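EI: anyone free to look at a 620-residue chain?
SC: sure, send it
EI:
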Amino acid sequence: MKRFRLSGVAGSICVVALLALVASAVSYFTANGTGNASAAVSKLTAPTITAATPAAGGTVALTWSAMTAPGEGTVTYYVTRDGGKAAGNCPEQAAPTAVTTCTDGSVPIGEHTYLVTALWRTWQATSTGKTAKVTVGAATTFTVSASATSIAAGGSSNLTITAKDEAGSTVTSYSGSHSLVFSGANAAPGGTKPTVVNSSGTAVNFGTATALTFTSGVATVTSSKNGLVKLYAAGSSTIVATEGTITTPSPPTITVTAAATSKFSISAASATPTAGAIDELTTTAQDTYGNTTTSYTGAHSLVFSGAVASPGGTAPTVSDSTGADVAFGASTSLSFSAGVAKAAEAKNGGMKLYKSGATSIQATEGTITTPTALSVTVAAASATKLVLSSATATPVAGTGFNVTTTAVDTYGNTASGYTGSKNITFAGATTSPSGAQPTVVNSAGTVVNFGSATALNFVSGVATPASSKNGFMKLNKVEAAAITAGDGTISTPASLVLTVSTGAASRLGWVETTAGAGAIGSPCLFTCAITTLGNSGTVKSKVAITDGAGNIVSNIGAAKTVTVTASGGTIVGSPLTIPEAGPSISANQFTYTSPASGSFTNTITAASTGYTSATATASK
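SC: here you go
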């Protein structure tokens, strides 16, 4: 190497001349003024592409010679394909690197020319072109084939999935584990989703990434793994496999038929039928996945269950194919067409329920049944009658008790629509010996005699007594009372029979009273008026111990003495004795005789310790 000393203008001219000698490298610099400098004359040699090897899958492996830098620093390189950017891990002009190998990716099918450019500082040198012909491109599609194109629900088919390039060639470099997403098949009516078994043997739902192993571009099923598809929804399914932008333009079709009938599904025209009304059922035969089993046709004998008889005893029914109503629990012949028995015109599944409230309906034929029962809520029909119920069947005379009045439909269900204030008239009980009438307290708290309209408040068909109102009843005569009620439109078809017992012994009363002349007023019990008796007239009577309503008590336990006195006239036969057993009536009677002359008004009194006295007035 020769060295030159340059100065001034002559130096500048010499530098330019030296630069012109470097034919294989390109660079430039400028200088002004005067000075001393030294320079080594060299060049940047262009690299040589030693290999451009194409491979299936649209890749080209490149290698090139390494270049020596003319001075300090490192030589870097970039690659172009057909005058533009290369792909894969090949360096590009904007970011050159010192590598001498790279693999171009996503290379289209065809012949391509590669150049490698070496860079050092501001110098660059480009190789001559190297061609490579790609015959098998990158995977752009999947072809999917199925070993079985017609299966029963729950059955399986082996999928073979092949990665293809744009020309339809198998991309043999597409190997190893790939995550594919399958689509094109639906879940069964019962919710079971279609699956593909991955390479490790796990069933993965459609729509979820499924790892499959590819060998030389193909994924095949081995030992029920790596592509075994299971479908559950009856019908046609097109199986599409996708990974990123790679998909299946022509998917295979697999036809799925229903499996064997294993259950019934029941639906009703109304989920809230009225008691006694026809509710049309649709009964569908299904496989275990909820597909309709269309092969289930013709006459089949089903037994319906779940509903019970109404309070009045009317049993639920379903009409058979001829229109005859068959009670729940008995075989009902229905006609199925393509797996469905549909009621129409009160035939072939017209259900009638009579008990109000919620119930669940099932149908069974042998081992085939309804795993999910049909739920319906039956509404009561309109009110057709009243029903009475009592807090006690043996009320005590003169003591109040609660009577509930319920409006019911023809089947005995509570008619919840019968609500608000209703005027109810009660009957069936009689007046007590003292003249006390049977009564009911209305909703406002007013005591109303039997035989008069009594306003009761009904809530959802029931008038419930509360706070001694709205049905608080009092009966006063000891008897077997047959209580009835009605609002003028509906009434009690069966009376409420109550046995009224005597109350506590509390009063004295006149019994078996006779007068020799004159008139005896009525009632003649606790008090008694005997008029126009006349002089020397006689009144004869016994005395009894009664309850507060005048009912004669019995078995007082110890004999009682009753003293009878009069304010005028005479008394013969006093005192009277009340026996300890049996009816508490004196065995003997007294006789009152009025004055022999003149006008009179005398008071006769019967008294005994512990009891309210009885009085009678005798007058001329």
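EI: The two ends are 180 Å apart (CA to CA).
SC: 👍
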